[in-house]
TrEMBL record:
Organism listed in the record: Papilio xuthus
Chain ranges of the COMM domain: 131-194
Superkingdom, natural source: Eukaryota
InterPro entries: COMM, COMMD10
Name of the protein: COMM domain-containing protein 10
UniProt cross-references to Pfam families, sorted A to Z: COMM_domain, COMM_HN
Length: 195
């Protein structure tokens, strides 16, 4: 019942059971609303008045509704940290206990979120002048030289370019490793600022 990208606790299992019991026609707008509010990074997803209306619509008490909302928030945040094939995501959701219809709604929402994110990345790959930026790399290994016999010296060649300029870099293993550590630190800061 577990999958690699999600830890299925008792609370998550209970939340999945509650979500499965919700009417399909009302579940999809409920799911979309949560996804939209999370994308906008709003703290309050539903007002107290809206929560009371949802309790009536879904015929649940406040605690049950809150478990359903928290489960979807947790699931949404976990989904956006991984890249899936939609078919595999659908299978994972069914394996952890979602009904087929609910899994389809979640995959549909995830697909739209990911496609908009990817479109933003494509738009951001253009610089201010509208030039497309590219990144390429290759790895060369110098097997030996007159100075050092039978010595392998790996060198990475990175190229950053757009329509007007090109920047080439030759990096040794230690230079490349240092750059990797810096990129990882930047990624960690970006991840922490999103959460």
């Amino acid at each position: 019942m577990n999958c690699k990208w999600l830890k299925v606790t008792q609370n998550v299992q209970k939340g999945i059971q509650i979500l499965n019991s919700l009417e399909d026609s009302k579940f999809e707008p409920f799911l979309k609303r949560i996804g939209t509010k999370l994308r906008l990074q709003e703290i309050e997803i539903f007002t107290e008045e809206e929560k009371m209306k949802l309790q009536v619509i879904f015929k649940v008490d406040e605690d049950t509704l809150m478990i359903a909302i928290k489960t979807l928030i947790y699931l949404h945040k976990r989904l956006l940290k991984f890249i899936f094939m939609p078919v595999n995501l659908h299978k994972d959701l069914i394996n952890i206990g979602f009904k087929t219809e609910k899994a389809e709604f979640i995959v549909k929402l995830w697909s739209s979120e990911v496609s908009s994110t990817l479109n933003d990345l494509v738009c951001n790959s253009m610089d201010k002048d509208g030039n497309k930026q590219t990144f390429s790399w290759k790895l060369n290994t110098e097997l030996s030289s007159d100075i050092q016999k039978k010595c392998k010296i790996p060198k990475a060649y990175l190229s950053l370019s757009n329509d007007k300029t090109e920047q080439d870099m030759e990096l040794s293993h230690s230079d490349l490793y240092t750059m990797f550590i810096q990129f990882e630190a930047i990624q960690n800061e970006l991840d922490s600022s999103v959460l």
